[in-house]
Amino acid sequence: MRKPRDFDAALRALTDKTNALKQNKRQQLGELIVATGAGTFDMETLAGALLAIVETSDNVQKEGWRKRGEAFFRTKGQPTSRKPGRNVSSAPASGSSETPAGSPTRET
């Protein structure tokens, strides 16, 4: 006869894994806010901007934001010796974070 499965232990393990994944997602979102320079805004402004993004139904605008975010991550992953001429993501590293964080609303 085989050993009965411990469903409680399996459920605890899944719950622990779920909590770890949620914590990892929260940490990554916080790191994203800091990396983009959006951490300089107060919570109300940042929440308002995120709500505007969620509420928009303009797919063209969403695609523009997606492409810009993709370019941000692509340029962030490059070595510092290979900087392209238009490196938008270099501004947060120099301490001036207002232009990149505020520019999505101005350009779109």
How would you characterize the overall build of this protein?
The chain is built from five helices and no strands. It is mainly α. The longest helix has 30 residues, at 7-36. The chain is elongated, with a radius of gyration of 20 Å.
Short summary of the structure?
With 108 residues, this protein is mainly α. It contains five helices and no strands. Helices cover 70% and strands 0% of the residues.
Total strands? 0
Which percent range describes the beta-strand content? Answer: under 5%
Provide the helix percentage.
Answer: over 70%
Global morphology: elongated
Low-confidence stretches: 81-108
- What separation lies between the terminal Cα atoms? 67 Å
Structural class estimated from helices and strands: mainly alpha
Number of domains: 1
What is the succession of H and E elements? HHHHH
Largest sheet, in brief, is: none
| Number of helices in the DSSP assignment | 5
Spatial extent as radius of gyration: 20 Å
Query: Averaging pLDDT over every residue, what do you get?
Result: 79
Q: What order do the helices and strands come in, and which of them pair?
A:
Blueprint: H1 7-36, H2 43-55, H3 59-76, H4 90-94, H5 98-107
Write out key terms for the chains shown:
108 residues, mainly alpha, 5 helices
